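input
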Amino acid sequence: MSSTTYEALFAPILADVEAEMRAARREQTEIAPILWNVIDYQFGWDLDEGDSMAQKVTGKKIRPLLMALVAQAVRGEYRQVLPAGAALEFIHNFTLIHDDVMDSSTDRRHRAAVWTQWGAWQAINSGDGLYALAMLASTRLRQIGTPADKIVRVFEALSRACLQTAEGQILDMDFEHRKQVSVDDYVTMVANKTGALIECAAMVGAVLSTDDETIVEHYTRFGRDLGIAFQIRDDYLGVWGDEAQTGKSATSDIRDKKKSYPVLVAFERASDADRAQLDAIYRQDTLADADVQTVLGVLARADAQAHTDRIAQDYYDSAMDRLAQTGIDNAAQDAIRQYAAFLVRRAY
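output
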């Protein structure tokens, strides 16, 4: 699925999520203009809607789209989840703003990262504000008549997903300084850092669409496995991705000395000589271009590219098994399958 096909196939849902996000933003009383300038910048709302860059900046809205597709599969409609979907997209973007500060990443979605424009401290403050906006956005569920117990459950799910994401990020940063990191350690990290929000999307989509807890559980497990597969694909793109499509520097994960899945594969599968070379390079404060090329050579000899592909496929297959266990079979469920395949095979 190309980016054009993606946008065309899901255009109505993406437009509804965008409208809900803007509505939640408009409800707020502006006190500090910087906060709202950052939020508008993060989502491309500072650009003219006809500007071709606006589509690149706004983001793929992976999580609210998944939430809406689950709702449509379960109940035949998705408008009941739009406030929660908007909240989840706000949460995801607050983590991106903070991540860019922590990683010193200068680019995000084909333009300068927030912190490079407003400074690290204001980026952190604005990320915190965006988190608060997410919580307020979720309360808009009251306006469409969502039962109070469902709202509480959604609020709990969003909060828990935030906590798990923070724990995953802490583990990720800790891995950069830890001498040994196992593949199992990695899976625990990504299941929280990335998987938690995707799991939350699938869970909330089901919670707001049915009272059948068995169905909710199957979609929740589906989301968790899909989230892990999604992150492994992201790790793949962080080493072998096309910069023109990903919107960030090629080999960025290597330069940042990330213990991403391909690198862990190399540490486990490489020869003693190659492993010693990797270890020496990853102990350096910064990596030169020659170091990056050396790492790429080690990854190639360890067959890390093919191995990374295979493990992503394994988690994708597990997610598909969970999806089948819901017992739901309709056009929306087919769309979920197609969408999941896109997430694990995307080029950006």
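quick obs: The chain has 19 helices and two strands.
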